[in-house]
Design a protein that fits this description.
The complex is a heterotrimer.
Chain A (H helix, E strand, L loop, with lengths): L17 H6 L6 H6 L2 H11 L11 H6 L10 E6 L9 H7 L1 H15 L3 E6 L4 H16 L15 E6 L9 H8 L23 E5 H5 L1 H7 L1 H5 L9 E8 L5 E6 L4 H8 L9 E5 L10 H4 L6 H6 L8 E6 L4 H15 L5 H18 L5 H14 L7 H15 L1 H7 L7 H5 L2
Parallel strand pairs in A: 1-2, 1-4, 2-3, 5-8
Antiparallel strand pairs in A: 5-6, 7-8
Chain B lengths: L3 E6 L2 E6 L4 H6 L24 E4 L6 E3 L10 E3 L3 H16 L15 H8 L18 E4 L2 E3 L9 H9 L5 E4 L6 E4 L12 H5 L5 E3 L12 E6 L8 E8 L5 E8 L12 H5 L2 H4 L6 E3 L2 E3 L1 H14 L3 E5 L5 H14 L2 E3 L24 H6 L6 H10 L2 E5 L9 H8 L3 E6 L4 H5 L2 E4 L8 E4 L4 E5 L12 H7 L7 H11 L16 E2 L11
Parallel strand pairs in B: 1-5, 16-17, 16-18, 18-19, 19-20
Antiparallel strand pairs in B: 1-2, 3-4, 3-5, 6-7, 7-10, 8-9, 11-12, 12-13, 14-15, 14-20, 21-22, 22-23
Helix pairs in contact in B: 9-14, 9-15
Chain C lengths: L17 H11 L9 H12 L4 H11 L3 H10 L11 E6 L2 H5 L2 H12 L12 E6 L11 E3 L2 E3 L4 H9 L3
Helix pairs in contact in C: 1-2, 2-3, 3-4
Classes of the chains: A alpha/beta, B alpha+beta, C alpha+beta.
Chain lengths: 426, 520, 168
């Protein structure tokens, strides 16, 4: 089932080094690139159907088309390597195993959108990864692939690595921009969208590492070759991360559209320890959970996920075995999103802390049925009332656990205790 | 005039000004959209989420009104059940970690959160888990006390200090529900406008160390005043109260919005200048050093005026236009020389490029407009040739050392009308206490040639004479305020269209008028 | 998140050493605004001292030419900046979803019971400090532990035990 497009060089020894990368075709596309018109490049990427691999799945070429023309301001490219969504660990492999593929992708994208300055925003926790990436960038500068004249062509591309420092929310593209500007990573209200007013108020394109790293293949082999993988509406391949209760967790490159359970069984070795499946988180911790019977009819593409009222997300699949305590899992999730709330919008700032404490109360056996109801109600009260979707990233999955595993919450609730509503309704 | 557009609020068509956000646009026609973080002087931030409104057929259907420009034909939903529920829900989130200490909170009575709760559904709290605890009674410096637990993290204070004063003393520290406002240790609020954060705070998180615990706000009477701290003449609200068996006292000055003068803010010095209206006031009349009934003192003063061969009048640059025309008319009638000399009111280099002016006089433009000489040479020459010096409330101690003043006035009779106690009063032949600016109504012209009207705020138990009344007693041809105003209308053409009560709150810009070409 | 507003003062003035000074000057040219240096400067400080003191925050603000409150905001918002000295070995155990599913708690329990260190604290000898952190992005090799920036994947108590034994 596995394919090798993005991961073609992952098993090659020292693939992060320029010498090795060149042997395997790195920077091969640049002459072809600069012979094309930028608009032609954008057209080719549009044609490939490449969708943003950060989570939202927005078509990359279309996004580039939003850039206003001739503003007189510089255009910035920002590469999102914040990769902080729990269960997501794909971009890390690109950074370490094939950084030159990313750099080549940056050059392609820069030329297409008319940008000379790129910032790669990499999460602070990626300490060893940032080192490898920086070394690759330094090598590319020395060899003339970056700098004033990219590979001898009259085009400048400068790349700067900007390290985050422990904030999930900086994966949200405008929070990321704030962070590069030296501020707290608090998402901006949109409009204006970054393509119009992004980094330093200038037109900015923000793409995920994997999206950018897909460009060299599309340039080399053409849009049709890329589209040959995957489904019609979800073309290409994806670096899926499979974690949790499977025998062989790890990162696997797969075409889109494969059956979810088959992938878990055949690629990841099935549920570990011969246990039964309890549920599958299909695309990172923020995506609603699928029951085994739902997972059975789900395929790994944007459309099937939507039909099952969940999301493709980052492609981070988490397998839950029969021993998982769902209430504890929900506690773990809420703890995460509460910890990562940027503190800007009232519903998220105050609401996630409230949800966290209610869940604690239920887990301690001190909760009531009203608390379970309140927890469920708060999901609705918080969601979509905020600048960004961090709060929804918490409430969407939590709602799914409350709806699909409500009996587990109820089992914690002491039956004799009067509900809050009753106690205060006088 | 700004362009008008038509839009719908809850299905009803309203005409609003174009180019504004929804909060301001529909707010101007009396429809309030709840909000905490938005402030017109600080721009939209969008963090409180209280102003979420529905837009029928809109994409997205739910928008923050502070960030949404009013547009022609827009269908705004405010009272739909689902929008009201959102407002309630957001308010609930604001309240869950907010202490219920309204009974001891200074903001009670002018708290936005309290207002919204009262106008919403007043449901009991559903918070059955422990609240987040933070720090209380933090001294932020500059007369500002902070309570982190009451704070709704709207960031108005932070934005004010970054955008307006550009001093940036405050930040919002941490993230999550642990987010809180703080100073960086050792760098407290240190600018001349800091206390504005107290007014900006929509809740009781920022309190003024000067005002806190002094008075419940619902007991305060409010009057529209003009700050007399400098020539900017910022519009203020004078909050005062007369408690049972006590005198009418001012508790605070607050900025009153005036787009032509001070916007939404005032400086701290001006704000705290209310104290001098309460303190160190001259309340008794004297002949020599002997306290006497005011009627006796006026009789004695009139005798001095009759006996004088050559008198000099000095009028304060803080005096109202009405007082100035009255004293001018009196001087003309008595053949006295009138001076407005007051160089000492000017503190060179003290002003800034925002509100604070070097000139600490409230109405120097008035002196100039009425053609009253202000030069030192003329003043001293006139004094040297005179046998009687009458001072209408000008503070000469600002211009002269005590010795120099004594020397200047040696051998002259002196009549002093004063608002405050001073060493100079004791040396006067006759001393008459007069009202200060919070105790009369009048008009002043600020440094930018804006004429503003202010109303009488305080009525003291022992009400003093106004300078106009003193002048009338001395035989001024303008015997009533109405006559004084009519005289002003002769001098300032623009005033002909207005009565005192109809002068707009933001004042009259005399630069706009041909009356700027003054013929005194 | 817990409150991070309490800064620790060393009582000593702070400044970059020669190496960090040069790095600061090199990096600042990469950005069109000086404030973009807030995060990099905090990193340089942490690299130099192991943590970020009150004096360092003041220094960074003055060096960049921005408000100390702004640097204070960033230092407290981004949780990787240590606002107090850590142990010689700073152990970060991932506590999020996949690591939680695959037994991170056993590691935390071991560290508490056998090494004597609990989250947010240091061992008495100052050798180890522990922090439970959110997702480290190594979910496929969970549970993961990061010690002084180095990742150790597929951890269990036995492996951790031998690893800690190698640390002087």
């Amino acid at each position: 089932m596995e394919v090798r497009i993005l991961s073609a060089k992952f098993d090659v020894k020292n693939s992060n080094q320029l010498k090795t990368a060149l042997k395997h075709g790195a920077y091969e596309n640049l002459d072809k690139l600069f012979a094309m018109q930028p608009a032609e490049v954008i057209e080719e990427v549009k044609k490939s159907g490449l969708r943003g691999r950060g989570g939202a799945g927005f078509p990359a070429g279309v996004k580039w088309g939003f850039l206003p023309k001739d503003t007189g301001k510089p255009v910035y490219l920002t590469v999102n390597s914040d990769e902080s969504e729990p269960a997501t660990f794909k971009d890390r492999y690109i950074l370490v195993k094939d950084p030159h593929m990313l750099i080549e992708g940056i050059i392609i994208c820069s030329y297409a959108i008319g940008s000379n300055d790129t910032y790669i925003y990499i999460r602070g926790e990626y300490t060893t990864q940032v080192k490898v990436l920086q070394e690759a960038i330094d090598e590319a500068y020395k060899a003339g692939y970056l700098g004033e004249k990219v590979a001898g062509h009259d085009y400048r591309v400068d790349v700067t690595v900007h390290r985050g420092a422990g904030a999930y929310v900086c994966g949200e593209e405008t929070a990321l921009l704030e962070s590069i500007e030296g501020k707290k990573g608090q998402p901006r209200s949109k409009p204006p969208f970054p393509a119009v007013a992004g980094l330093y108020g200038c037109p900015t394109i923000i793409n995920n590492v994997q999206s950018i790293a897909s460009l060299p293949f599309i340039m080399k082999e053409g849009a049709d070759a890329y589209k040959a993988y995957g489904t019609e509406k979800s073309p290409g391949t994806h670096l899926f991360g499979i974690s949790g209760h499977v025998e062989k967790p790890g990162m696997y490159e797969l075409p889109l559209g494969l059956p979810l359970l088959e992938v878990i069984d055949k690629v990841a070795g099935g549920v570990w320890k011969g246990r039964k499946l309890k549920g599958v988180i299909p695309g990172g911790s923020s995506t609603p959970v699928l029951l085994p019977e739902e997972a059975a009819t789900t395929t790994l593409d944007y459309e099937s996920m939507a039909e099952h009222k969940t999301m493709f997300g980052s492609g981070g699949i988490v397998v839950l075995d029969e021993t998982v305590n769902i209430v504890e899992l929900v506690q773990n999730l809420i703890n995460f999103y509460h910890h990562e709330s940027c503190g800007q919008c009232t519903p998220c700032r105050e609401g996630l802390g409230w949800m966290k404490k209610i869940t604690q109360k239920i887990l301690k056996g001190e909760g009531s049925m009203a608390d379970v109801d309140l927890l469920r109600e708060l999901c609705d009260n918080i969601e979509m009332k905020t600048v960004c979707v961090l709060s929804a990233a918490c409430t969407m999955p939590v709602r799914s656990y409350l709806d699909k595993f409500r009996h587990e919450f109820e089992a914690y609730v002491t039956e004799n205790e009067p509900s809050v509503a009753e106690a205060t309704e006088e | 005039m700004a362009d008008k557009i038509k839009l719908f609020v809850n299905g009803e068509e309203v005409e609003v000004e174009a180019g504004k956000n929804l909060i301001d646009a529909v707010g101007a026609v009396g429809i309030e959209i709840p909000h905490l973080c938005y402030h017109p002087a600080l721009g939209a931030d969008g963090n409180c989420r209280m102003c979420l409104v529905g837009i029928e057929d809109g994409r997205p259907p739910l928008v923050p009104a502070c960030k949404t420009p009013a547009q022609e034909g827009m269908k705004v939903l405010l009272d739909a059940e689902h929008i009201k529920k959102i407002q309630h829900d957001v308010m609930e989130f604001e309240l869950i970690n907010h202490p219920i200490d309204c009974p001891v909170c200074d903001q009670a009575g002018e708290c936005k959160l309290q207002d919204y709760y009262m106008s919403c559904d007043q449901k009991p709290s559903r918070m059955t888990v422990p609240q987040v605890t933070k720090n209380k009674k933090m001294d932020f410096g500059g007369g500002v006390i902070h309570d982190q637990e009451r704070c709704v993290v709207c960031g108005r204070c932070v934005r004010f200090l970054r955008q307006i004063t550009k001093t940036g003393e405050l930040g919002i520290i941490n993230r999550t529900d642990d987010a809180r406002v703080n100073i960086f240790p050792g760098r407290p609020i240190d600018n001349r406008y800091g206390i504005n954060v107290v007014d900006l705070c929509p809740v009781g998180a920022m309190t003024s160390s000067d005002f806190r615990f002094k008075q419940r706000v619902w007991f305060l009477k409010k009057a529209s005043g003009v700050c007399h701290g400098c020539s900017k003449g910022c519009s203020i609200t004078i909050d005062h109260n007369k408690e049972k068996n006590k005198d009418d006292i001012i508790y605070r000055f607050r900025p009153r919005f005036n787009g032509q003068v001070n916007g939404y803010f005032i400086c701290d010095e001006g704000r705290l200048s209310y104290k001098s209206e309460n303190e160190n006031r001259l309340t008794a009349a004297f002949i020599g050093k002997v306290e006497r009934e005011i009627s006796d003192v006026l009789t004695a003063a009139k005798k001095e005026l009759e006996m004088s061969k050559k008198a000099v009048f000095l009028i304060s640059p803080d005096a109202s236009l009405e007082q100035m025309v009255a004293v001018k008319a009196l001087a003309a009638k008595l053949g006295a020389t009138l001076s407005g000399y007051s160089d000492g009111y000017i503190k060179k280099g003290d002003g800034d490029d925002y509100l604070i002016q070097d000139d600490k006089a409230a109405n120097r433009q008035g002196l100039l407009l009425l053609g009253i000489d202000t030069t030192k040479e003329s003043f001293e020459k006139a004094v040297s040739e005179a046998d009687l010096f009458v001072n209408f409330a000008s503070d000469l101690s600002r211009s002269y050392e005590q010795d120099a003043l004594t020397k200047l006035l040696t051998g002259k009779k002196t009549i002093v009308c004063a608002t405050h106690e001073s060493a100079f009063n004791g040396q006067a032949t006759i001393t008459i206490p007069v009202r200060s600016y919070s105790e009369y109504s009048g008009s002043v012209i600020n440094c930018d040639n804006i004429l503003q009207r202010f109303e009488k705020a305080v009525t003291k138990n022992n009400e003093l004479l106004d300078i106009c009344e003193v002048a009338a007693e001395f035989g001024c041809p303008l015997q009533t305020p109405a006559e004084a105003y009519a005289e002003l209308q002769q001098v300032i053409g623009m005033l002909k269209e207005y009565q005192p009560a109809t002068i707009p709150a933001e004042g009259l810009n005399l630069n706009d008028s041909e009356a700027a070409n003054v013929t005194a | 998140m817990s409150d991070r507003s309490q800064l620790i003062s060393t009582g000593e003035p702070f400044e970059f050493d020669k190496k960090r000074d040069a790095e600061f000057e090199r990096l600042i040219k990469r950005y069109p605004t000086r404030e973009s240096m807030i995060l990099p400067a905090l990193w340089l400080t942490q690299e130099q001292e192991g943590w970020v003191s009150q004096e360092a925050i003041g220094y960074i603000a003055d060096r960049i030419g921005t408000f100390a409150a702004k640097v204070y905001e960033a230092a407290t918002f981004y949780t990787m900046y240590n606002l107090k000295p850590t142990g010689k070995y700073h152990i970060c155990v991932c506590r999020t979803l996949s690591c939680w599913l695959r037994g991170k708690q056993e590691i935390v329990d071991y560290l508490r019971d056998e090494v004597g260190v609990t989250p947010g604290k240091k061992t008495e000898d100052g050798k180890f400090s522990l922090e439970e952190v959110e997702c480290l992005g190594h979910c496929g090799t969970a549970p993961v532990v990061q010690i002084n920036g180095e990742f150790y994947e597929n951890m269990d108590v036995e492996q951790l035990k031998s690893l800690l034994a190698t640390l002087e």
